UniProtKB/TrEMBL annotation:
Its EC number is 5.3.1.8. It catalyses: D-mannose 6-phosphate = D-fructose 6-phosphate. Its cofactor is Zn(2+). This is Mannose-6-phosphate isomerase. It comes from Fictibacillus norfolkensis. GO terms for molecular function: mannose-6-phosphate isomerase activity. Residues 7-105 form the Phosphomannose isomerase type I catalytic domain. The gene is manA. Residues 239-317 form the Mannose-6-phosphate isomerase cupin domain. Belongs to the mannose-6-phosphate isomerase type 1 family. InterPro entries: Carb_Metab_Reg_Kinase/Isom (IPR051804), Man6P_Isoase-1 (IPR001250), Man6P_isomerase_Firm_short (IPR014628), MPI_cupin_dom (IPR049071), PMI_typeI_cat (IPR046457), RmlC-like_jellyroll (IPR014710), RmlC_Cupin_sf (IPR011051).
Length: 319
């Protein structure tokens, strides 16, 4: 039986809006001064994570998914379902929208559409997100886009560190400048840009927009998602269930001491936002973790102990 967590090597992505905070805040060795994304837990073909420890060391997560499904509660499906990122938005991201599963499969040949959620790790004072829009119909939406009435169309939301935002597919959205988030999402890389502030790439070209597809998949009119965080645990491990929906369940864990037994409902995707500690598996290993680590607790570990002082975002496919 596999009885230790699976630590993963992040994959980094250069982005026109990226910066250097992934190095400054987490100590990552980033490839460029405009590194926008850390794919911490990924089996997507555009950036699969590599296993750093144990008997599977050196294998990619997509290979582990294909060959060792017992580590993932024998979950069905050709593709690993989730992807966990940390994003450093030095400048505004494009205003964008993502399709649902059926549209992504039929039009893009992707296994999944993209529903996602964000935990705000840090942001500058006065930081904002684009979340939704003010158009009442597709015709009005299209008119406002074609007439560049962005201030009138886009709905701005103020944010602060510790906020959580749930972004179902079809939601018009954008992460604002000066914001660092942890994103939990379906394992998809399909993005349709609605607006990009007339930015140009390194060769001086305007970045591609996807207006027609965006209008086809956007939620019009916009409706805020309905979810309610739930608190549990004790002083040693305070657990806040941030959202449970059809694709994933996401939690914020605050570890401040020692807890003898944490149950594993299937398999857990764990990202350490801050602090350090140990994870103990009965009859197995004791593993240390620290800020910036990403690991999976496989389903072969039914429960485990933890001690330390640390904060995490934890997720699993909804069951």
């Amino acid at each position: 039986m596999y009885n230790e967590p699976i630590f993963l090597k992040p994959v980094f992505k250069d982005r026109i809006w990226g910066g250097t905070k992934l190095r400054e805040e987490f100590g990552y060795e980033i490839p460029t001064e405009t590194t926008g994304e850390c794919w911490g837990i990924s089996a997507h073909a555009h950036g699969p994570s590599e296993v750093l420890n144990g008997p599977l060391k050196g294998e990619s997560l997509n290979s582990v998914w294909d060959k060792h499904r017992e580590l993932f509660a024998d979950q069905e499906g050709e593709d690993f379902p989730l992807l966990v990122k940390i994003l450093d938005a030095k400048t505004d991201l494009s205003v964008q929208v993502h399709p649902d599963d059926s549209y992504a499969r039929e039009v893009e040949g992707e296994a999944f559409g993209k529903t996602e959620c964000w935990y705000v790790i840090d942001c500058e004072p006065g930081a904002e997100l684009v979340y939704g829009h003010h158009a009442g119909s597709k015709l009005q939406f299209e008119e406002m886009v074609n007439e560049n009435r962005w201030d009138e169309l886009l709905r701005k939301v103020a944010i602060k560190p510790g906020d959580f935002v749930y972004v179902p597919n079809g939601t018009i959205h954008a992460i604002g400048a000066g914001t660092m988030i942890l994103e939990t999402q379906q394992s998809s890389d399909v993005t349709y840009r609605v607006y990009d502030y007339d930015r140009r790439d390194d060769e001086g070209n305007l970045r591609e927009l996807h207006i027609e597809k965006s209008i086809e998949v956007a939620m019009i009119p916009h409706e805020d998602a309905d979810f309610e965080p739930v608190l549990s645990g004790n002083d040693d491990l305070r657990i806040k269930k941030l959202v449970k929906e059809s694709y994933f369940t996401v939690y914020h864990w605050n570890l401040a001491g020692a807890v003898a037994e944490v149950e594993n409902p299937s398999y857990l995707l764990v990202s350490v936002l801050d602090g350090e500690g140990e994870l103990q598996v009965e009859g197995g290993t004791t593993s240390t973790f620290s800020k910036g680590d990403h690991f999976i607790v496989p389903s072969t570990i039914k429960s485990f102990g933890m001690n330390g002082d640390a904060r995490f975002i934890v997720s699993h496919p909804s069951i």
